[in-house]
Write a structure and sequence with these properties.
Length: 163
């Protein structure tokens, strides 16, 4: 299966997970008898982690949306969900995602003091990619809640998969 096709299938499964929960995904995947139960459970764990990260990103963006200079919700969701995805369900994309985050960090760093919160946010995402605990952000940083939720989602995945 090509990377594009695999990503498309994962997006469809994620949508089914949001709409019908784990039971709907489990029923779909087990109906053919071709997907082993262990693989189904790994996929469900990854989908749960992704849903948790997206919910956290939405909550954080909603909470902080009134702050000047906040990244668009879609950007926050993409940064959070892709980071959780490469640490859970699609680790083969980790280096590609790291390169994109490094470029984003460099871009934000060059934008001056108005982007200090965003620089800290992307630095935290890079720390997560390296299995490091992200540095604590200042209390006024609107992205801290998102990072905390991502840490929990990744840890939940690891606890459930034993990785």
């Amino acid at each position: 299966m090509t990377d594009d096709r695999q990503q498309e299938v994962m997006q469809m499964l994620a949508q089914l997970y949001v709409q019908g929960g784990a039971t709907a995904v489990r029923e779909l995947l087990s109906s053919s008898g071709e997907v082993p139960d262990a693989v189904i459970e790994q996929l469900l764990t990854a989908l749960e982690a992704q849903a948790t990260a997206e919910a956290a990103a939405n909550a954080g963006a909603t909470l902080a949306g009134a702050l000047a200079g906040m990244l668009p919700t879609e950007t926050i969701n993409m940064l959070a969900s892709n980071t959780v995805a490469v640490k859970t369900g699609v680790p083969d994309k980790l280096e590609e995602w790291r390169a994109q985050l490094v470029a984003t960090h460099e871009d934000f760093s060059g934008r001056g003091a108005d982007y200090a919160n965003e620089v800290a946010f992307v630095a935290a995402l890079l720390a997560l990619l390296d299995d490091q605990t992200p540095a604590a952000m200042p209390p006024e940083n609107p992205y801290q809640q998102i990072v905390d939720s991502m840490v929990q989602a990744i840890q939940s995945f690891r606890d459930q998969t034993g990785t």
